[in-house]
Amino acid sequence: MKFAIFGAGGIGGYLGARLADAGHDVSLVARGDHLAALQSDGLRVESVAGDTTVDLFATDDPDDVGPVDYVLFTVKAYDTRDAAAALDPLLGPETAVVSFQNGVDNEQWIADEVGRSHVVGGVAYIFSTIQSPGVVAHTGGPARFVYGELDGSRTDRIAALDDALTGCRGVDAVLADDVRQELWKKFAFICAQSGMTAATRKPLGDVRAAADSWAMYRRVIEEVVAVAGAEGAALPADTVDEWVEFAADLDDDVTSSLYYDLTHDKRLELDALNASVVRHAERVDVDVPMNEAITAVLRPWADDRAT
């Protein structure tokens, strides 16, 4: 199988290395210092599931790669439209573009550029990041990747992707019955985790210790679940309790990528997270005051770093 990893960061780099170790043909599309390190020293993954180093073709120009079977699309959500517009050299008639990103809008944004027939939905549950140029650190999480055709069909290409990912060490691969539901389910959690740790500028332990903040954390999840239902992606009845119980068991020092970006002067994915909840809620006439509050608190930061 031939793969291109578009955005070889924490998630893309991890998957690329695992697929290469399983014998697949993997190319990396990256940029900056990270690209330079990939080209000179290869990709190093330091993982709780086992370390590996792979020497893969890396470039910033998709024309250098050509058509592939799968594009694993793992850029930040604010780069989705621009990155999707650059995908054409990687696409053959049956190429699947598999989004493993934060949010519920990316698949549509990609489809707007390349056509819906190319797009596959995906959800990643993993704590991994670029530790230094050329080095990806996987520090925790189940390394669980959920994916599926947007219409729920079992195509040959999704079956082949499932076989490829299932055969990778350090990957818990799950072919979803309804990937849209899976996208909204994770979205409910990350909007609470990212929104509350970023808005308070505190790790989860401090959020839990403040009764008002912990109650708001739950309400953020409740609002997203309500919007999902109104959008036709009804989530299981125990989704809110499941995520609150999950968050209650996380380490005190856990934060989020949104918190990290806020505190490290980086661009924010706000418009793919809590602000997205607000947009969807307006369309389906659902009240989401907690997500509106988080969006309002973080908006000046997001706008200031948008360019």
Labels describing this entry:
307 residues, alpha/beta, N-(1-d-carboxylethyl)-l-norvaline Dehydrogenase, domain 2
Describe the structure.
It comes from Halobacterium bonnevillei. Catalyzes the NAD(P)H-dependent reduction of ketopantoate into pantoic acid. Pathway: Cofactor biosynthesis; coenzyme A biosynthesis. GO terms for molecular function: 2-dehydropantoate 2-reductase activity. This protein is α/β, with parallel strands linked by helices and 307 residues long. The protein is built from twelve helices and ten strands. It has two domains: 176 residues, NAD(P)-binding Rossmann-like Domain (Rossmann fold, 3-Layer(aba) Sandwich); 124 residues, N-(1-d-carboxylethyl)-l-norvaline Dehydrogenase, domain 2, CATH 1.10.1040.10. Helix 8 runs antiparallel to helix 9, helix 8 packs across helix 11 and helix 11 crosses helix 12.
Q: What would you say about this model in short?
A:
This protein folds into two domains: about 1-175, NAD(P)-binding Rossmann-like Domain (Rossmann fold); about 180-305, N-(1-d-carboxylethyl)-l-norvaline Dehydrogenase, domain 2 (Orthogonal Bundle). The chain is built from twelve helices and ten strands. It is of the alpha/beta class and about 300 residues long.
Portion of residues in helices? Answer: 40-55%
Q: Can you summarize the main beta sheet?
A: 10 strands, mixed
Q: Average pLDDT value?
A: 97
Low-confidence regions: none
So, CATH architecture of the largest domain?
3-Layer(aba) Sandwich
Might you state the CATH topology name of the largest domain? Rossmann fold
Global morphology:
globular
Summarize the helix and strand pattern as letters: EHEHEEEEHEHEEHEHHHHHHH
How far the N terminus sits from the C terminus, by CA atoms, comes to 37 Å
Total domains, how many? 2
Radius of gyration: 19 Å
| CATH class call of the largest domain | Alpha Beta
What structural class results from the helix and strand content?
A: alpha/beta
Measured by DSSP, the beta-strand proportion falls in: 15-25%
Specify the CATH homologous superfamily of the largest domain.
NAD(P)-binding Rossmann-like Domain
Q: How many E strands?
A: 10
- Count of alpha and pi helical runs: 12
